[in-house]
TrEMBL record:
Organism (species): Cellulomonas biazotea
Physiological role: Catalyzes the phosphorylation of the position 2 hydroxy group of 4-diphosphocytidyl-2C-methyl-D-erythritol.
Associated pathway: Isoprenoid biosynthesis; isopentenyl diphosphate biosynthesis via DXP pathway; isopentenyl diphosphate from 1-deoxy-D-xylulose 5-phosphate: step 3/6
Any Pfam family hit: GHMP_kinases_C
Name of protein: 4-diphosphocytidyl-2-C-methyl-D-erythritol kinase
Top EC class for this record: transferase
Chain residues that bind ATP: 106-116
Family affiliation: Belongs to the GHMP kinase family. IspE subfamily.
Active site: 21, 148
Catalysed transformations (reactions): 4-CDP-2-C-methyl-D-erythritol + ATP = 4-CDP-2-C-methyl-D-erythritol 2-phosphate + ADP + H(+)
Domain GHMP kinase C-terminal: residue ranges: 216-292
Length: 314
């Protein structure tokens, strides 16, 4: 008797969740010869999640649902699809995949939604295809896809150096509570870095120094939200404000509503406000809504884990 390989049942699916992130600190150095900036950053993964559902297919295809899904590319420009193809090439698998993205992380919001999708797609396809790759090999593929993708795999709180992709876990205690003012207009990360360069033209930009974040690391270790709020830092904030001056409003609203600290998230335009408690995060979110300074508001807690399989069926 000859055994023929059995094609996976169509209902075989793997469901993976990956978090968005904020940069508690983002220190930006001068551009190198390729135009990339050395960074020293402290990432925190927060409980705003992307979900990626992978099912077998002969081709590589992608569908999207959730807020702002209409502006997400479904072609090869989508980082999740690129992640799936990269993994297939790496392990020499002659198969496609259908990826369905359920988006919740703001698009082009400075919270690494695309990177979360890429990390989730790597984990989902790795499980679907039973590649047997180790975590380290997945992290290597993640780094090839984008500098925020390794952190989306790892999650929790971590210090990032290089282009943000070299990670060291950070010790934290307890939970921190956040409210976010989301703008649908988005900001291009590349444009924000160009504006950073323009604003610093003719001025010395020092190499980013992780020592500058010692007080922030102490606040995290102590679980001291008040101390953390006082030292949130983003070198890209002035560039984001220069491109989108309307962002001063959500920053001011959060301060008036008693936020412990408020900062533009990554390259913006999402504004992240640190709250005293879960209840206070809801108060901050209500203040954003009442003032009409956000297209959407979110509350979340951090840190949370990185990309994880939440269910899989055979
Ligand atoms: P980062 O903080 O890493 O710079 P971001 O959160 O500001 O990223 P993303 O939502 O990741 O921004 O997407 C930026 C752009 O990338 C989008 O405007 C879109 O054109 C493209 N893109 C590619 N793949 C995706 C994806 N899976 N989800 C959303 N946008 C994607």
């Amino acid at each position: 008797m000859t055994l023929t390989p059995v094609a996976p049942l169509p209902e075989h699916e793997v469901r993976v969740r990956a978090p968005g992130k904020i940069n508690l600190s983002l220190r930006v150095g001068p551009p190198d010869e390729d135009g990339y900036h050395a960074l020293s950053t402290v990432f925190q993964a927060v409980s705003v999640f992307e979900e990626v559902v992978a099912t077998p297919s002969d081709v590589f295809e992608l569908t999207v649902s959730g807020p702002q899904s209409e502006v997400v590319p479904t072609d090869e420009g989508n980082l999740a699809l690129r992640a799936a193809r990269l993994l297939a090439e790496r392990v020499g698998i002659d198969a496609g995949v259908h990826l369905h993205l359920v988006k919740d992380v703001p698009v082009a919001g400075g919270m690494a939604g695309g990177s979360a999708d890429a990390a989730a797609a790597l984990v989902a396809c790795d499980s679907l295809w039973r590649t047997g790759l180790g975590r380290e090999e997945l992290v290597e593929l993640a780094a090839a896809l984008g500098s925020d993708v390794p952190f989306s795999l790892t999650g929790h709180t971590a210090v990032g150096s290089g282009r943000g992709h070299l990670l060291t876990p950070a010790l934290t205690r307890g939970e921190f509570h956040w409210a976010f003012a989301v703008q649908h207009r988005g900001l291009s990360t590349a444009a924000v870095y160009r504006e950073f360069d323009a604003l610093h033209q003719g001025r010395h930009v020092p190499e980013p120094d992780p020592e500058d974040d010692v007080p922030l690391m102490q606040a995290l270790r102590a679980g001291d939200a008040r101390a953390l709020g006082a030292v949130l830092h983003n070198d890209l904030q002035d560039a984001a404000l220069s491109l989108d001056p309307g962002l001063v409003e959500p920053l001011a609203v959060a301060q008036d509503a008693g936020a412990l600290g408020v900062v533009v998230s990554g390259s913006g335009p999402t504004v992240a406000a640190l709250a005293r408690s879960r209840q206070h995060a809801l108060v901050l979110a209500a203040a954003f809504t009442a003032a009409g300074v956000a297209d959407r508001v979110l509350t979340a807690a951090g840190p949370v884990a990185g990309a994880r399989v939440v269910s899989a069926t055979d």
